[in-house]
Amino acid sequence: MVVFDNLLELRLSHPIISSSLKQQFLQEVFHTNLSLDEIENTDRAYQAFFTRFHSLRNAAANRHRAIDSCTFADFFGVVKLLRNNHEPRSDLEKAVAERLDKDVSHASLESVFIDFAASVWSLLIIGRSTAYNSYDDPVVWEASTFLHPGLNSQQPNLINTVFPPPSFLDAVKLPQSFIAANLEKIGGIQVLWTDNLADHLLLRDDDTKIMLFHHVSALRLLYYPSKLPVRELADETIRSLALLIPPTLGAASPWFEQQQREHHLDSEAGRCDRLNSSERQIDKFHYWRERLVLLKRTYDDAEPKNLSQLWWDDRKKTQWFTFWVAVLVFIMTVFFGVIQSVASIVQAWASVKSLKAQI
User: Angle 109-122/89-99 helices, nearest 10 degrees?
Assistant: First the structure.
């Protein structure tokens, strides 16, 4: 079996399996300096990211078969253009067309390739993908806009379009009990996991399901370039996961461990640093503030639908205590009433038996 140790020589259809290839890929895409030890020690975390990459590559190949003829060198070159953010999409398409091999260049290939590369790097899923259906409107990158704000936050860009400023500034409290496990256990809101950052914290199906983005390892890689404009978005996304999936004694909670095993999630999503009371204030969030407010309101308005939810629902502690004391009193009344009835029956039976004996 031939072993390759340089992605630049390979086509995009080649699987990324070895640690050395993963290291090179992450270095080229995120401009990082991860060691092989770091890759191997966190392989379960990065495995989720590479699964996402291969799904996006397959989706791009379904949109345009010529994707299979492109190389990783082509891909890394396009990602570098996206990261530098010097041109709007229309100019990028021209640059990508020049970069791709003339034998595989077609009218729509540049567009598909840019959607693919931008989806991998930005962690959004851009364009209409046959392999992934967003639960919100598809993320469309217009020709006249840049990918991210760059040094000029006023220039039209995709990031600001997908994550506009919150339309309301309502204040809500985010207590320690406001966690994903309680959303399911108390609020009856099912947690669904997404590979699309644009779907993070999105409520769907009549507010009975919540989408959570779990690729924390990739979000942390966006920290490396110190002036990267999406750094604040990545940081806030991680803090929102720390809010909803706090660790237990420094390790992932049992609830998340079960979720990770079932859905093959990024294991780092359950190991974010726990937030203190100041960091849990809603005004500390900008990109996700509106969705967090809507989620908290939905959670607060949810009424228990079964005994299990009633038992765990201690959001209003006085009412919870009063209700269960009343239940306990009722059970004790019934219990002692049954005992008293049984005792009366036994007593009556004994009296009848005694009278018969006398006769």
Answer: 110
CA distances from 133 to 124, 136, 199, 222 (A): 12, 9, 11, 25
Q: How many residues does the chain have?
A: 359
**Of the candidates 12, 234, 3, 238, which has an alpha carbon nearest to the alpha carbon of residue 123?**
234
Confidence (pLDDT) at 2: 46
pTM value?
0.82
pLDDT in tens, 79-112: 999 888 778 999 998 888 888 865 555 558 899 9
Token pair, residue 212, equals: 């959570």
Q: Which has the closest alpha carbon to 140: 165, 169, 111? A: 111
Tell me if 67 sits within 8 A of 56, measured CB to CB.
no
